[in-house]
Amino acid sequence: MFARFQLQFVLLLTVAIFSGCTPQFRREKTEVKSASDVVIHFDDLSSSNNSEETPDEAATPATTPTAGNESTTATTPKKEMVAATTTSKPDVAKQAPTTTGYTGPAKFVGRVVVKGDVPLFSALLAKGAATKDMFCSEMAVPNETVISKDGGLGNVFVYMKKAPRKGVPEYSGEPFVVNQKGCIFIPHAQIVRVGQPFILKNSDPVAHNVRYNGFASQFNDTVVSGSTDGLTKVIEFPERLPAGMVCDFHNWMSAYVLPVDHPWAAVTDADGNFEITNLPEGKWDFVIWHEKALYIERSFKVTAAPNTLIEKVFEVNASKLSQ
Amino acid sequence: MICLISGCGGQPEFSHSEKFQTLKPYAQIYVDQVLDNYFGSPSDMVAWDKLPLELHYGQGTVVEASGRMLTVELQAPHAEITAGTEVLWDSGILNDKDSAWILEWDEAKHQAKLESPLATNPEVGDAVILGPGQILATGRMLYAEHCQHCHGVAGDGNGPTAPYLNPRPRDYRKGIFKFTTTQSSKRASREDLSRIVEDGIPGTYMPSFKLLTEDEMTSIIEYVMWLSMRGELENQLIGLLADSYSVEAVEDRIAGGDETSDTIHQEFIDAVNDPDSFPFEVDTIVSRFTSEWVSSQEPDAEVQPLTPRTPSSDESIAKGRELYLKPSLKCAQCHGEAGLGDGSQTFAVSKDAAGQDNLTPGLYDTWGNLVKPRNLHSGIYRGGRRPIDLYSRIYAGIKGTPMPAFSSTLLRKSNPEDSGSEMTDEDIWHLVNYIYSIPFEDVKAGQGGSSIANPVKDANTASEEDSEEVAVN
User: Fold this and answer.
1) pLDDT for the residue A88
2) Is a pLDDT exceeding 80 seen at residue A25?
3) Residues with Cβ < 8 Å from B371, sequence gap 6 or more?
4) Residue B223 is part of a domain; what is its CATH number?
5) Within an 8 Å CB–CB cutoff, is residue A251 touching chain B?
6) The total number of structural domains that make up chain B
7) Among residues 109-138 of chain A, which lie with CB inside 8 Å of chain B?
């Protein structure tokens, strides 16, 4: 790994070349910029008259079409500024009430529920449906949008957006297993710790592949049919959003995996409940995300201290699930 | 930077990635600043030492220096050093002073005669860079001349010729290359990239560039990797910022009620100025792909067959065919029972990266392009036709495409009854032998007996040296 502060010692050499016509090189000393010259700094909001439109005089994007006429470089309509100020409210952090009388390490618990008429989800593959691997439809492949009788939404990821710089417990748990059984990924939604061995199994008599499509890393491997030992993979990089996992042989098969570099993450159970324990003291941002509803919260603020219990019910509009 | 030669048309610019426009203007400016600081523009490039690339002709230390003579110890290997090469002082008392210029170079002694005598002599051990950034600059020239009209200035696969091509030129910005001889979890090696550039990609518009000198090839490959890193940083950074500072995210947040456009903007500015926030994230992104590129160059990243190629024979081909048709391997599901590239998966509706159904049924690659499984009768292999090429395609899959790695499925104990027996990869070789034989089959794969035109001879000749023999026929 590269030391964080290596950046400071990095040398930057600028090579100027003129292309588009005959190559020609500058016949002087190649310019050397020291790292301190390249620290990117933005002005304070207060020091710029219009926060939305002129963040930094030094920073004019090369593509600004209106270059040369400073008064027209605004790219955002004024309307938005107005809208923004009218919606501004007193500074109440978006926060769940904390329950008094709780003792123990800070805990964030809650539930995700669906609001409105729940659409009827048809099975992804009906029982007995004709498919090339008839084995797969011996049992219906259920729709993966899991909603309990009283509206709890399962398979929702709730996770701390960014791990604290210090004090993250090392991972030392068991490897985590994803099985492919009845042409379904089990579990469908799963958190993994970065570096945690991740065992892919296939209990089916047919072959599956597992194509993991993260933003930071990817893999695509076949998993032998009937494999009980499985194939061990390690995801080395965290993701900001759950990464999709598919089997290219059976198009309905999908799963989501979220590799994180901390333990403060959970997936809601079939009733929509989640629980995140042992939160470190501080103010943390949580993301709440579901494969159909997408962002339920982009950054939900949780203030954790010993003996606090943070409880919150999150509502999702049913219409967001039917897309 | 001012273009010294007037009348030579507009300067090329790196175009932005598609998602750039979704960001709030202040986030766009930040992305531009980061890229500009660490990579510069095509006409004023920045050679950033953090990138694991060979950017200079050579790097080393002073062994002896006085007057016009300079002897250096260079880290091997280095590019050809010629008259006119710049000597940049990288440490010691001459650091930050004007560069010296080489008049004559003695490669055997690593000794230079300089254009003018040194006013001050450097100390023994001072660091020097010979031809700073020159490899990148040469790469840029050659790229502009040979590659840019297809692959685009920014390596986004979107040059002016690109819209007319199928398959589309590769977009380097994901850091993913398809035809590699590295393990499934690794990136391309430099050798993989230079082999592609040297041989081209048969059956596509990617031409072969056989006339490039070794140094020119090095420059082009370093430049392609440099573009790939630049593009990956851009993509990853935009992805990171879009979470909270895309136009849509900001609207969402304002609708949430507790935040205003101003508080969000202030938060952004604070994050830019806080070394633990965005600067740290940028560093993390760069460190991640840097370490991936580095580890992909190491010997153990390479696909290495466990056993030498099983000689081709009727028996091996028959075994290969059996494996090919085996339901548990599924080659036929994509490539078709007859190997025509028309298996059932080419008719199935698949999902795109966002989980939505693709409009046209079939298989898609990571770039969102429809890809057809190869017609194995054509005898044309895009990633090369050496046995090791086909072996690697099967062993490690074709990266960025649905064709998966089969190593875990095809490596097995040499004696299935004895769990203590050694692992063997002969099944992969059987498949390779079978693939070589398909273009000569009279009957469709999986049907009838073997009526293959002299497969043994042909398949064996398909070696590195005389691969053309089979291609003709």
Assistant:
1) 32
2) no
3) B167, B362, B363, B364, B365, B401, B402
4) 1.10.760
5) yes
6) 3
7) 132-133
